C-alpha cells in the first residue's frame, strides 16, 4: 500500500473544515492529518472534536509560535489557500524556501476547477475566438458575502492586503489561467464608498455599535452578524475570543476599516491582451460577468452565485451556482449557447474536483489546473500592483514589484 500523504493544517478557522472533513472521510485511504496549528487553542480543540466525530484520530496541536517545532516533528505537504501571501517580501521568502528545500507548493485555486471556468479555458485554447485581445471582467459581492469581509480581520489592510489581494486573487488567477499569460502593468482606482462609519453618516445613519454581541442597535441592523445563533461560528469565534480578543461580529459601519469596497483596474498582459476589471462589495446579487474579445469573435459568460456567509451554514452552498451561461459569438456566424457540464456543490462544483486533485490518487489533468507557488505569486501581484497604483495614482509595472520566474 502506498504511503499516505501527510498534512499539517495551519489555521483552523472557518475554511479549515473543508479540508479536514474531506481527508477524514472521502480521502482517508490516501491522506491523513498529522498536526494542527493556530494562534488559538480553542479553535484547534474544536477541529479535533470534529475530526474524532468523523472517525479520525486526535492529532497534536501547536500554537503559532511553535510552528517550526511542528514542522520538525511532522514533515508534511505544503498546500496553501489563496492568497498565497499578501506582499512581495513574503513572496520572496516562499520562493527562497522552495529553492532551499526543493519541495513543491500548491495553491488551492478552486475556481479553476469549476466546470464553466474550465470550459472557457477549453474554448480559448481551441481558438474559438482567435487571439484574445481584450477582457472585461466584472465581479459582484453582495451584501451578505461582501459585507462579511468588513466584519472580520480582512477589514484591516495590514492583515489582508485588501480585497484586491484577498478576494480578487481568484479572479486574476482565472485570467492568467484562461489566457496562459501573466500581468505586465496595472493601473487602478479604489475607494471605500459604502461601508465604514463616514459613509453611513452621509446616508443619515445616527446609531452605531462596535460589535453585534450585546448591542441593542445591532438587533435592528440587517448587516449585523449574531454569532450566538450560528453554532459553527459560535464555537470557532465567540467561544474562542477570550483567548485572543478577536471579534468576528464587528460592525460594517464602524471605525477602523482600511480596505476598499469599490475597485476598478486596467491591466495589460505579457501576451498583449488588456483587461478592464471591477469589483463591487455591496451589490444586490453575487456573481460575475466576463467577456473576451478576439480576432475571431467574442465569448461571454455570466454566473450567478448563491448568497452565503463564510462558515455560517452548509459549506456545500458556498459559491454554489444559481444560474450560469456561456455564449459564443463567432464573427460572421450566429451566436450559440455552449453546453456546460452539470455540477453540484461549493464554488460552482470546483471544490470537489480540487479535493480529488489534492488528496486522491494522482491523475493526469489535460486542463493543467493544479496551481504552483509561481501561479500564486502571479495572481497576487496584480492586486499588489493595484494597491500601489491606488496609493500613487500611477501605472505600476509588475516586474518593478517582483519578477516572477518563468
TrEMBL record:
Gene3D superfamilies: Dihydrodipicolinate Reductase, domain 2 (3.30.360.10)
Pfam families documented for this protein: GFO_IDH_MocA_C
InterPro entries given in the database record: Gfo/Idh/MocA-like_OxRdtase_C, Gfo/Idh/MocA_Oxidoreductases, NAD(P)-bd_dom_sf
Residues of the Gfo/Idh/MocA-like oxidoreductase C-terminal domain: 122-396
Protein name, per record: Gfo/Idh/MocA-like oxidoreductase C-terminal domain-containing protein
Native species: Chaetomium globosum (strain ATCC 6205 / CBS 148.51 / DSM 1962 / NBRC 6347 / NRRL 1970)
Classification lineage: Eukaryota, Fungi, Dikarya, Ascomycota, Pezizomycotina
